[in-house]
Amino acid sequence: MSLEKENKIISKLNNIVMILNRAVTTWNNLVLPLLIGVFLAYILDKKTKVDEIPTFVWIIVSIFIMIQFFVAIIQHKGSSFDTMIMEYRDKNAALTNIKNEFENLKTQYTKDSTCFYSQRTALRNAVNSLSYSIGLIRNVEAADREVTEEEFDTMLDSLVRPLHIFREKLFSLEAETLWNIAIYLPEIENNDELVSVWRRHDDRIVPKNRTWKPGIGVVGESFVYKSIKYYEDISKIANNSGHNSRWDIETYKSIIAIPIVPCIDGSSEDDHKPLGVLIMTSSAAEQFNLDRDAHFLQTYANLIAILVEKLQTYFDHTDNTAQGGT
Hints:
This protein is an alpha+beta fold. The chain has helices at about 5-45, 55-140, 150-165, 165-170, 215-225, 240, 245-250, 290-325, and strands at about 180-185, 195-200, 230, 255-260, 275-280.
């Protein structure tokens, strides 16, 4: 039997007990005293001895005694039932709370399962794209030609595209939320500027494609300190974030920036220079969750670091070969 049906039955029984209690109260406080008064008045009026009281009077008295006995039983049972109802309601409230907690846990488990599955799928696709890109670079080297700008854009896009495709399931983005994903790398001619080399964003956003100096803004801070920077609500630190306009505060309300650094696991004692920054923004406050997103995004940034470092090695090798041949 379901909890709802049990509640309905208990509610009906409780109503019956309330009616019986009212009837018992009426009997004890009104009917019984009245009958006793009538009986005593009859005895006194007739001045009848006990052994001279007619039989029908004793029959009536016996009936009233039986009724009173039945009423006493009802009163006792009603009191026990009231206690049982109170205990049931307390236990029912506790069970309802447990049920609600389980429902919340079930909902959270479903969300987490969807998120973890999407993370696994995104990383698997990213690894496949990275494998393809490294193979393409090897083929380009074997063909003794240079990687074109179009090929570079294709390799980077195929690697980061899963973040774009699975963004809603990965980060619980709602339809009305303005989102933005970008990769910043040092400008080739001016390493003092971080420029956007890849970006995907909500169609309602008009990107400014600003450059950031190391140490300035969320991008610059993540780059310099080689650490994840997360702000639940940028409006609380707007004066220090580089996002000072009302549009910035409303559009980029929550921000998470992940440094793209080789050998992030500490396997090398060299203090490697950062390669860039992966950044995500949302117009909703507290969009990202460090427990859920930090490790995943850092892993993703490491895959980007492998591709960027491979391309840098390729370009350095190409430049050295060209200089050696002249």
